[in-house]
Structures are given as structure tokens and as C-alpha cells.
């Protein structure tokens, strides 16, 4: 019983934090895929990289052609370091899910956001979104 009370207190803290927002439930995001959520005027892509046991969030807009498409991109790993990445579904520009850097040599970068999973809920840290 005390574990449930402690977990509920933790969830209340997360929901009350000004720089976190509840994005969706973890079951809403397909395994090894992504979804798009909206926070204020920003579209955010959330990725459930189950093969790695990791979650990522980035801006949804691909900077190459300014298309809101990254949440529909393919996720995978790149290079010797097995860098987690997402590839835009339109022109295959790949971006690191850890740093936001473009991995295909162009001078593009995407914003990344920390993700917290708690009790089946996905929270995104959005300090930098106005």
C-alpha cells in the first residue's frame, strides 16, 4: 500500500512541474515507432524505441523542407556507436535522437526534449518551448 501512495505522490509532482507536460499514455505510442503530440504551438514527435528500451522526443518538423513529418519517420541505429536516429520519411535526412544533429552530412539540426515515463504516462520536458 505504501508503494502505491509513494507512486501517486511522484505522479502528482510530475504533473505539477511547470516544465513538464503530460503528452500521452505509453500504450499510445507504437513499439519501434512514433506519434505526434501538440504542446502550445509546437508539434513534438515521441518515439518508443523498444528494441533499445529507450524513449525520445524531438521537434516534429524536418528542417530540410519544413515538413511536419519526423513522427512518421523510421527509427534505427547508425554507425559504429549505434547512434539512435530517425529518418525523415520524405527525403531520408537522418537525425540523432540523442543530440539532434543531422547524420547525413548537411547542416541541419532538430530540437530534442527529455522524456519521462511514469506509471504508463509519457511526460515531456519543455523548458525551451515558449
Q: Any descriptors?
A:
globular; four-stranded antiparallel β-sheet; mainly beta; 1 helix
Describe, in plain words, how this protein is organized in 3D.
Helix content is 12%, strand content 42%. By secondary structure, the protein is mainly β. Strands 2-3-4-10 form a four-stranded antiparallel beta sheet, with no helix packed on it. It has a three-stranded antiparallel beta sheet with strand order 1-12-11, with helices on one face. The longest helix is centred in the N-terminal third of the chain and has 15 residues, at 2-16. The protein is globular and about 35 Å long. Mean pLDDT is 89; it is low at 1-5.
| Oligomeric category | single chain
End-to-end span in angstroms?
39 Å
Q: Strand order, biggest sheet?
A: 2-3-4-10
Radius of gyration: 15 Å
Regions with pLDDT < 50 over 5+ consecutive residues? 1-5
Number of helices: 1
Spatial shape: globular
Structural class: mainly beta
What's this entry about, in short?
Helix content is 12%, strand content 42%.
Task: Map the helices and strands.
Layout (H helix, E strand, L loop, with lengths): L1 H15 L3 E6 L7 E7 L2 E8 L4 E6 L1 E2 L4 E2 L5 E5 L4 E5 L6 E3 L15 E2 L1 E4 L2 E5 L5
Antiparallel strand pairs: 1-12, 2-3, 3-4, 4-10, 5-6, 7-8, 8-9, 11-12
Amino acid at each position: 500500500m505504501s508503494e502505491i501512495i509513494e507512486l501517486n505522490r511522484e505522479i502528482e509532482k510530475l504533473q505539477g512541474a511547470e516544465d513538464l507536460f503530460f503528452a500521452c499514455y505509453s500504450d499510445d505510442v507504437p513499439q519501434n515507432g512514433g506519434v505526434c503530440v501538440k504542446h502550445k504551438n509546437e508539434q513534438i514527435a515521441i518515439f518508443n524505441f523498444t528494441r533499445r528500451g529507450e524513449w525520445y522526443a524531438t521537434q516534429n518538423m524536418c528542417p530540410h523542407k519544413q515538413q511536419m513529418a519526423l513522427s512518421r519517420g523510421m527509427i534505427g541505429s547508425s554507425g559504429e556507436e549505434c547512434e539512435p536516429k530517425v529518418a525523415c520519411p520524405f527525403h531520408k535526412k537522418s537525425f540523432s535522437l540523442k543530440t539532434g544533429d543531422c547524420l547525413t552530412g548537411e547542416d541541419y539540426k532538430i530540437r530534442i526534449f527529455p522524456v519521462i515515463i511514469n506509471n504508463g504516462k509519457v511526460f515531456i520536458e519543455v523548458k525551451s518551448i515558449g
